[in-house]
Amino acid sequence: SSHQLSSLPLQILLYVNGIYYIFYFLATLAMIVYKSEVFSYPDDFLAPDLALLLIMAVLEALRLYLGVKGNLTEEEAPLGLSLALTVGSVVLSVYFLVWQTYVLRADVLVNAVLLFSYGLESVLKVVAIAAFVS
Predict the structure, then answer these.
(1) What CA–CA distances, in Å, run from 132 to 10, 73, 75, 79, 80?
(2) Cβ–Cβ contacts within 10 Å for residue 109, how many?
(3) What coarse category fits the chief subcellular location reported for this protein (predicted)?
(4) Between the CA atoms of 133, 117, 89 and 36, what dihedral angle is there, to the nearest 10 degrees?
(5) pLDDT for position 109
């Protein structure tokens, strides 16, 4: 008798993170536009901030796809790769939280929620990978 090893809490969190990331992307893009209009945003920093946000969106789509695929097919390789890509997403989120040109309170809020969800998701991925391997 075979039993299901995929994680329902992980699947739900991946779905919720996909929805939240759309909000995160649009909010961060809107804040970058706002900051470029209201503050003296150096032109040398505007393009890299936008480029990093777009890179993060591509990384996030790939990370979520691999996470869902790995969880549903109960394969540790895609789930492990998704976990590795989470590190890149965390670094980019920390960039938008700490190192971008101007950091608003709204930046702190949306990035704190994103980082918390990455942490929770990573724990669930490790648990799922351990279940698949055993």
Answers:
(1) 14, 10, 7, 10, 11
(2) 12
(3) other
(4) 170
(5) 98
